[in-house]
User: Fold GntR family transcriptional regulator from Rhizobium chutanense.
Amino acid sequence: MTDRDNAVFNTMRQPPNLRSGLADTLMAQIESGDLKPGQRLPTEQAIMRATGVSRTIVREALATLRAKGLITTRQGLGAFVSNDPTARSFSIIPNDLQSIDDVLRVLELRMGVEYEAAGLAALRRRPEDLDRMQDRLDALDKALEEGGYGAQEDYAFHRSILVATQNSYYSRLFDTFGDIMVPRQWARLDKMTVTERKRHAARMRREHHAIFTAIRDGDEAAARRAIRSHLSKSAARFEELRDASTSS
Assistant:
């Protein structure tokens, strides 16, 4: 490793959010060209000395970069920057969601995608699409009634909307993320009282049924309004959780 390579890492500071902060720092150096395609990364020990974080944090950060296609590992040689790090597929992985602010950014992305998709679904849905959406909605209702989080059922319902656009790129985009697009681990549902859980479940049902009804009726404008309202209310709840944790 050259002196310049060491200099890049010697200027690093301990990231405030540990794993995600270290991964972000390394990604920034790769994307800026400070770490070039094919270049070998410093050893775990060298990164630990430069940043002050533990070996576990370093390994988790490197795992994040591997999952994003930014680095590759060669047995006995170490980790290297991918030869074409800018030609990777976009993805969101669990390690990306390290805070409620990260969840809010995902919701912003979803709103942009699903707002348009809901309108297209209302215009293009076929009978089989409506049957699929109804099945997914029934499954979500059942999960909520039984006191579950319904994350997988929620994801499946939203994906059925994307399928109804008759544009496979929408559903393929969601498939890239999986049910991480419904980040229940940050919803703090386990902290709710029984009454709060019932109120939350009732709201979820109303909002999802409003989306389905608008798409079923072929009302493009109403479908867009319903999906925007649903995701906006979800974002508002996460903002409340963030503000409450900050003030406590």
About this structure: The chain is about 65% helix and 5% strand.
